[in-house]
Please model this.
Amino acid sequence: MFKISASPFEIFKESFEGEFYFDQSFEHEGLKMVYATDASVYQEKPLAVAIPKTISDIKKLVPLAKKLNTTLIPRAAGTSLAGQVVGNGIVVDISKNFTKILEVNIAEKWARVQPGVIRNDLNAYLEPLGLLFGPETSTASRAMIGGMLGNNSCGLHSIIWGSVRENIYEINAILSDGSEVVFEEINKIGFEKKCEANSLEANIYKDIKQIISIPENQKAIVEGFPNKKITRRNTGYALDAVLDMWQSLESGGSFNMCKLIAGSEGTLCFVTEAKLKLIDLPPKEVALVAVHCKTMRESLLVNLVALDHKCSASELVDKLVLDLAASNVEQTKNRSFVEGDPEAILLVEFHAETQDILSEKTSNFIKDCKQKQLGFTFPILINDNCKKAWEMRKSVLGILFNQKGDTIPTNLIEDAAVTPEDLPDYVDEIEILLKEHDLKYSIAAHAGAGELHITPMMNLRNRAGKDLFRKILVDSLPILKKYNGSLSGEHGDGRLRGEFIPVMMGEENYDLFKKVKHIFDPENVFNKGKITDTPAMNEFMRVDEEEKAPFVKTIFDFSEEEGILKLAEKCIGSGDCRKTEVTGGTMCPSYMATRAEKDSTRARANMLRHYYSGKSEVVSYESESSQITNQKLQTKNSQLATKDVLDLCLSCKGCKTECPSSVDVGKMKAEFMQEYYIKNGVPFRSKLIGNFTKMMKLASIAPWGYNFIYNNAGLRKIANKIVGFHADRTMPHLAKETLLSWWKKENRKEKKENRFEKSEKKNTQSEIVNPKSKIVNIFLDEFTNYNDTEIGKKLILLLQRLGYDVNI
Model:
């Protein structure tokens, strides 16, 4: 016999402490499809998925990637809008095990955290300490520090709190040679010392120094980078920040490589820890002025007034979003402040120590607007009521996707940033471009920072739509360049914008970016194809060219949702379902328990989309059978993979209300499982659970025997294995007698006593007629009848003592 050699993956798995999914079993293939997408329009199945448990695990992945000539794709919450965590390499998910807040220094105002810590969860921990981590994305309830660092996230308060780049002190990371490094603030002497060692870290400092000290390169950076007045400059690598730090070294300033790592999208190193700058909590008194405007341009002129009044946030919501929010279960209550039918509302926030100062700020702002004849009404929300408006603003993308038809919102020109002064004119020109193509669109978000998320609605199911998708972005570039704007503000380049960096920044700067990538990562170990050498922006998209949504015959009525596939496609990957118990809410309880992407509502919707579109790509093992047999096996594996991902869905329906796109996974799971049972029969375990009452009735004949088996660990494991339960699962014990049996005995006893009492009363000739009885009807469920009988007994006895007649 010939010994079959193990694959590199199988050998690697033996020393890997975490989870590693690489083979062609339906479980592994299904999980790879779960990680094939993020919150963008892109989709590409990874080679493998790694969920590391330790830093050592991450270090082991580096030589594996080199050996296989593949790349590691760092992934946190997976809410990237530009395809940053989509690719055919090894996806490395740090969201499950790298979630510790390691240290907080209250006096010096910093926190040391792992990259899987969620921004809002961190701030919930810091709030009792009077501290806050400032950068705040609309996905802050699930966005993680690692992902925020990769994108240099900003958020709605960035005009006062800045981006991650301004709020990072140190980074612990693994370099492309597997070595560990700490990037921190250093002076000129420290910089020179860094260059003296014989290591990849030393080479990085030396080569960055060489690049940044060449006058021609400095000139290219100064002339090619966006206007420095734009706070959200996140295109390419932050060489403008590097140049500023380098020039400051001569005058006693400092240099921190963290500022280059921020916004690098996981392409330079693998971050394992971060030391964050913290700030004091803002004043508790807060007011939100919702300025209602008749035109979009008017709202952007109000924005300039708001900035003059030193607001803490200035965010835009347009008419389309306002109208859609009115039909969303969760957001209807959050738009109660809306009056009339405004074309746009600018949400302007102010903080103050007292209500009097706050009132003065809002009054002065409103007075100024009225003097400039801007806005037609100005409702004010105070303190907790402000949260409702912000929740509506943050749910924009999900709300937009909750529309019918094949024309969907596209994250296309939604990350461009200009100065707030240029914003009105820039938006005017972009609107002209979109109207030329008769495109419906939404405009929302960060007016105060000069960045509006402009989201055109397009049909990407056909070649014409994909060509237009590209054309709109290409045609928008000259407009943006005219205002010396930034192509990427906070959502990053990813696969969407990387292709156009040379156009916006110039070939000289793009060459510098490629050199930076090579300095850090010459073998493309980290996130290849992002920022540099990016594929064409309309390749590897979720929907194939000319693909029409297939008609799927269902048992439930999905006509309101335009079919089960369209309902699944409503999930855009925004990850609202990944929030934890700290944030609160219902969606998704199984994810809250396991913290595994596989158990998120998003994963289930994705797998159902793959399955019902026939694009699950769950392959069968090699076989000499006919092609038809292989196709059947592939379909079977696809079905099993989908069932596996749906397994922990509790059908709680939290997603139907809390998902901004109202993706009802509970209904889709019921449909899928019915189809599965029709094709494959109902499993014994499911029959057992479905007939629990009959099973317990049978077991109650000899409850002592049932209890003996399930009180004995060995016997319990055998019994569980037979019926299909987990070996360690305990079972509810049976009562010595059912509640119904006890009740019948009590009734007989009571009737006997009543007859005796009546006899006594007749003898004494003093019978009293009772007033009308108070009756309580009790529904006897199977658990109370067979298992929790003592609870039922106590309830009945209590009611009787209180004077009620009990009827079961």
Q: What stands out?
A: Residues 618-628, 763-771 have pLDDT under 50 and may be disordered. The two ends are 70 Å apart (CA to CA). DSSP finds 34 helices and 22 strands in the chain.
